[in-house]
Automatic annotation (TrEMBL):
Top class in the EC scheme: transferase
This enzyme's EC code(s): 2.7.11.32, 2.7.4.27
Residues annotated for ADP binding in this entry: 155-162
Recorded family membership: Belongs to the pyruvate, phosphate/water dikinase regulatory protein family. PDRP subfamily.
Task performed by this protein: Bifunctional serine/threonine kinase and phosphorylase involved in the regulation of the pyruvate, phosphate dikinase (PPDK) by catalyzing its phosphorylation/dephosphorylation.
InterPro entries to which the protein is assigned, alphabetical: Kinase-pyrophosphorylase, PPDK_reg
Phylogenetic placement of the source organism: Bacteria, Bacillati, Bacillota, Bacilli, Lactobacillales
Gene Ontology terms for molecular function: kinase activity
Protein name: Putative pyruvate, phosphate dikinase regulatory protein
TM segment ranges: none
Catalytic activity: N(tele)-phospho-L-histidyl/L-threonyl-[pyruvate, phosphate dikinase] + ADP = N(tele)-phospho-L-histidyl/O-phospho-L-threonyl-[pyruvate, phosphate dikinase] + AMP + H(+); N(tele)-phospho-L-histidyl/O-phospho-L-threonyl-[pyruvate, phosphate dikinase] + phosphate + H(+) = N(tele)-phospho-L-histidyl/L-threonyl-[pyruvate, phosphate dikinase] + diphosphate
């Protein structure tokens, strides 16, 4: 492959009758496989009319873009497919093939409702409550939250406790977290809960040093402080590991993991389900 083609920008158009999150996630997951490629991602959301759809399709044609669409209206979906076929553009209908197959198996017609995933239903309000819970019990503000939590995250500073708490809350899980500092008081509630609800987060010393120095620079402060001192960090990690083993909890090293990967590992290790969407409860 010549260098000119290697440097060509790959353009992707997301066309959706709702927020476009489903198609965007697929595009981003695919793009991540090509870290050296330059991408241009366009989002055309809340496309409810033929006029808006045709404008989006013509924009994609002008950029020779790949098209990924989620359009529940069969007429709009057909327009997108026919246009792409006629113009020889790559296109993917991410929604209708699966919706149709479910309909066949369930012997039902789909509602055809746009944005049905984002209903303000009971699950939605549970998610809001879970996020409020994560904020209320962030950084060990109130140890009583440990007794109510689905997940309790422990870790030294800069092990992603807060972003993980909020990410898991978005999956309808109540999460509390506690920062660990050597010689600091450990709340008694931590020893009163099932250790299978606790996850001890850790990190590599070198990674922590870099993260903490960068944080100090972001505040306009000297990065060479006790906060980023190697011996102090090693002592913090040693203290944390001793506590984890005493509790008998799951331990996850976040050094090379994204928030999404860590969350997935937590849910797998603790045998938790993602209840942020519709789900069916088993009858007892």
């Amino acid at each position: 492959m010549d260098s000119e083609k290697q440097n060509e920008v790959v353009t992707i158009f997301i066309i959706s009758d709702s927020a476009g999150e489903t198609a965007s996630k697929l595009a981003q997951a695919s793009m991540a496989q090509y870290p050296t490629v330059e991408f241009c991602l366009f989002r055309r959301t809340f496309v409810h009319t033929e006029e808006l759809l045709m404008k989006a399709l013509n924009d994609a044609k002008a950029e020779n873009g790949m098209i990924i669409y989620t359009l529940i209206d069969p007429d709009l979906a057909k327009i997108a497919k026919d246009f792409s076929d006629n113009e020889d553009l790559f296109t993917m209908d991410l929604l209708n093939p699966v919706v149709s197959e479910i309909g066949k198996r369930a012997q039902l017609e789909p509602t055809g409702e746009r944005g049905a995933l984002h209903h303000l239903n009971e699950n939605y309000f549970k998610r809001i409550k879970a996020m409020e819970f994560a904020v209320k019990y962030d950084d060990g503000k109130d140890p009583r939250g440990f007794l109510e939590a689905d997940v309790v995250l422990l870790g030294v500073s800069r092990t992603s406790k807060t972003p993980l708490s909020l990410y898991l809350a978005n999956k309808n899980l109540k999460v509390a977290n506690l920062p660990l500092i050597p010689q600091a008081h450990i709340p008694k509630q931590l020893f009163e809960i099932d250790p299978k609800k606790i996850v001890g987060l850790t990190n590599d010393p070198e990674v922590l040093i870099g993260i903490r120095k960068e944080r100090m620079r972001a505040y306009g402060l000297n990065p060479e402080t006790a906060y980023s001192d190697r011996e102090k960090i090693q002592a913090e990690l040693k203290f944390a590991h001793e506590l984890y083993h005493k509790l008998g909890c799951e331990i996850i090293n976040v050094a090379t993991l994204s928030i999404e990967e860590t969350a997935a590992m937590i849910m797998s290790a603790l045998d938790l389900e993602d209840h942020s969407y519709y789900f069916m409860e088993e009858e007892s």
